[in-house]
Amino acid sequence: MNGKLSQLRAQIEQLDSLETAPAILKPLLDMMRLPSDQIKLEKVIELVSYDSAIAAQCLRMANSPLFGTRYIETVRCAVMALGLERVRSILFGLCMNRLMPQATWVIAPDAFWRHSLGCALVAQRMAQKIEYPEPEKAYLAGLLHDLGFLVNSVLYTEDFRECLRRAAEQRAPLHVIEAQLLGFTHCDSGQLLCEHWGLPQEFVDAVRSHHDASPLPGAGPLANLVRLSDLLCRVRHLGYGYDEIVGIDLRGDAAWQSLVTIYPALRDMDLVRFTLDIDGAMEQIVETVDSVFGAKSIAASTTN
Ligand SMILES: [Fe+2]
Ligand SMILES: [Fe+2]
User: Fold this and answer.
1) Residue 219 pLDDT > 90
2) Cα torsion for 224, 227, 230, 234, to the nearest 10°?
């Protein structure tokens, strides 16, 4: 590991001993390491109830017209109405917003969460289409894949701001500019954070390799699913808050080729219909981001 990465690792190891680290971070990470069929509803309810601001946000979300539910007054009913994945996203997003306060973010929080939740949803739906056995895992990997953005924002604020400015000016992929300016990318910082948290190797690989043109040797299908989901979101203008020049041939991508050998159903996937489905789900993503991760909601949650 080069000197820059060693320094970055040491800085990342300090992050969750900060005063801003929320108490539910550790139990939440423990839950994220578990296979989804081992996650207990009672445990999720306990985590949500532990923090009154998070409980209030779950209740507000569950009572939103988007879910067609009303008069939900208990955390239990809210968790059941929202579903495990949505609750896990809410918990995780709120934890990240406290661990790395939004005031230090260089990227617009709305753009970041829309991209992350968009990728999560695309990865999950693609996983379902090809009959990947654990679509919830694909959702979670999609949600986590750009965590390095937050690390870079908080630890290298001014340099990362310059990366984003140049990337937007050149309409270039952010990781390319990061490599030139910082000497590492958000894939590296995301990988180090996931390793520090002890997340399963599959997640670490997906975070590390999501911008690699050729699949990581030995990496499983999850990394390829995340790479394709990220590409698809960026092509559909669900990127980092600016439009890149992305001439992408998804079917020609090495990640696609690699997945097709394991899941032949991918070959027959109607990409046009698939992207239309995803566009249809955008309203839900935007609503979730605005009501849970938007600036007003965060201000309310941090004053509680
Ligand atoms: Fe990325
Ligand atoms: Fe991304």
Assistant:
1) no
2) -120
